[in-house]
Amino acid sequence: MAASCSLSRCVVSPAGKHTASVIFLHGSGDSGQGVKSWIRELLKKDLAFKHIKVIFPTAPARPYTPMMGSMSNVWFDRHKISIDSPEHLESVDSMCNTLTDLIGEEMASGIRKNRILLGGFSMGGAMSMHLAYRYHKDVAGVFALSSFLNENSIVYKELEGCQQSLPELFQCHGQADELVFHQWGERTNALLKGLGVPSTFHTFPNLYHELSLQELEQLRSWILQKLPEDPAETL
């Protein structure tokens, strides 16, 4: 059985023919249902599209070092929440394998890889950057909301000298974020841009470590830009 089968998930199905998919990863300690509900509360409706399926998987519970080893739904472990901490690569790589199976499920249902977007909030955004820029450079794009990569991330090392075109990064960050500092997000964006990642970075004054309506509306527009309705698929 594929490892991704162990990931519980909730889905917002497209209103019409399914021709593209978004995989949206929650932040640490949350769940797929939790972030789906949070978005619905802000938008006053689901993040829904005519042709795009939105998948909200839930990370399995694991001991989480920043919580003194208590069990938490996290995509990977961290030694500490800091840009200068080394990465916990064993847990990152294990989850990349699991999420690769989830991408494979979408492809098996007939969705092309370049019609799949990966992204998430906080830890979910970091996980998505690892997944896309190390293993799935042919996805449609990546979004990272209130997220960062560690200063010496393996993502940067693996992009050095990369000759292929890379998926666009849509990044947002609140200037008042006291958990994941705004400058960490800016630094991540600048380093990825320097390695050939086409990217945009949107700053939201007075926004803490949270989602906002304006941010989600911009994200929704970007998703539609990256995954427009495909006339060939809708005939």
Automatic annotation (TrEMBL):
Annotated GO MF terms: carboxylic ester hydrolase activity; palmitoyl-(protein) hydrolase activity
Residue ranges of every copy of the Phospholipase/carboxylesterase/thioesterase domain listed in the record: 10-223
Compartmental location: Cytoplasm, Cytosol
Residue ranges crossing the lipid bilayer per the database entry: none
Protein name: Lysophospholipase-like protein 1
Its job: Palmitoyl thioesterase that catalyzes depalmitoylation of CGAS and KCNMA1. Acts as a regulator of innate immunity by mediating depalmitoylation of CGAS, thereby preventing CGAS homodimerization and cyclic GMP-AMP synthase activity. Does not exhibit phospholipase nor triacylglycerol lipase activity, able to hydrolyze only short chain substrates due to its shallow active site.
Organism: Pyxicephalus adspersus (African bullfrog)
Enzyme Commission (EC) number: 3.1.2.22
Keywords, alphabetical: Acetylation, Cytoplasm, Hydrolase
Pfam families reported in the protein's UniProt record: Abhydrolase_2
Reactions it catalyzes: S-hexadecanoyl-L-cysteinyl-[protein] + H2O = L-cysteinyl-[protein] + hexadecanoate + H(+)
Main enzyme class: hydrolase
Entry's Gene Ontology cellular component terms: cytosol
Family: Belongs to the AB hydrolase superfamily. AB hydrolase 2 family.
